[in-house]
Write a structure and sequence with these properties.
By secondary structure, this protein is an alpha/beta fold. It is built from 16 helices and eleven strands. The model has no long low-confidence stretch (mean pLDDT 97).
């Protein structure tokens, strides 16, 4: 690896490129995590909502396909673990390389993660959350900007990574200098990977770009819609959480492509909350039909940098080569 691109994160996890696959629920399955691991990055299965059957199937597949790389882990949503942590316990018995937690207090799970030998990665959305991550013993903190696809804090509270990353890097340097930092949100090519390193991150958590890969479990129709969408074409709101019946706590909401169904409810959220049934039925019909004017495609603002659907290995190699050329 180019010395300018190498980092504490890549050395700690024996990576060829300082990238971790974002553990995107229902998209970062076993095949994608294993492909990322074989390509020299950290492959995190999207354990997400903690469904034991899904997690055990996909994590087992990741282990099988990744061979002995030692670069497989899993990610979970903390407030769902608070309801049922059986999937986390199942994964910990398989001795993952890392566990990533997001959206809640990691302290309840930190000791058992560390006892398993796994590294704890904790994702934060605001600077004020960094002490919580450090107190829990996180080896790595991922700072997530509002640009990211999927869940993040709402627009009132979210940060842009161009200022969030260097501020977080400064705070960690002063208070927890051994804690590594990943940038999350908007990183989809070598330019943005290089930018993350220049801003002070030890690496990047990559979601949307790897969501749009051959191995991703995202629906083919959603991927095709993403190819036709620019960075102007996403929005962050509660709408698709309501339509899917996902009871996310405040202040979190959801970025996806701003399709016809989303636009119809953008200025009618109280009405949707009061009677979601008909709109949910329309959403479910769209999902069953593969109609992404009604179903959702979960990508962030980096969708405008996505123009093809190659393998994960091709994406990693492309990003790495471009970043090396810039930093070298």
């Amino acid at each position: 690896m180019n010395l300018a691109l190498a980092s504490r994160f890549s050395r700690r996890f024996d990576l060829a490129s300082p990238i971790a696959l974002a553990p995107m629920a229902l998209a970062s399955g076993g095949a994608l995590a294993a492909a990322c691991a074989r390509a020299g990055t950290l492959g995190l299965v999207g354990g997400g909502y903690g469904d034991l059957a899904w997690t055990s199937r996909e994590y087992g597949l990741a282990q099988e396909l990744a061979g002995g790389t030692g670069r497989i882990g899993c990610g979970f949503i903390v407030w769902k673990l608070d309801q049922d942590a059986s999937a986390l316990d199942w994964v910990l018995e398989r001795r993952p390389r890392a566990i990533m937690l997001s959206f809640g207090d990691p302290q309840r799970y930190a000791a058992r993660i560390q006892a398993s030998g796994a590294e704890l990665i904790f994702q934060v959305q605001r600077l004020e959350e960094l002490p919580r991550a450090v107190d829990a013993g996180a080896t790595v903190v991922a700072v997530q900007g509002g640009e990211a696809g999927g869940h993040c804090v709402d627009s009132l509270n979210s940060r842009a990574i161009i200022s969030f990353v260097p501020e977080a890097a400064d705070w960690l340097a002063a208070h927890a200098p051994d804690t590594m930092l990943l940038a999350a949100g908007g990183i989809a090519d070598g330019r943005t990977l290089a930018a993350a390193r220049v801003l002070g991150a030890d690496g990047a958590l990559v979601g949307s770009r790897l969501w749009a890969s051959a191995e991703s479990l995202a629906a083919p129709g959603a991927k095709q819609q993403a190819l036709a969408t620019t960075g102007d074409g996403t929005a962050r709101s509660r709408i698709f959480d309501v339509l899917r019946g996902k009871d996310w706590p405040q202040p979190y909401d959801f970025r996806c492509i701003r399709n016809d169904l989303h636009r119809r409810w953008e200025h009618r959220l109280p009405e949707l909350l009061a009677d979601p049934g008909p709109a949910r039925a329309e959403y479910e019909a769209g999902l069953q039909a593969g109609d992404f004017t009604r179903a959702h495609a979960t990508v962030g603002e980096a969708v405008g940098l996505i123009n093809d659907l190659p393998t994960a290995a091709d994406i990693v190699q492309r990003m790495t080569r471009q970043a090396q050329a810039i930093l070298g």
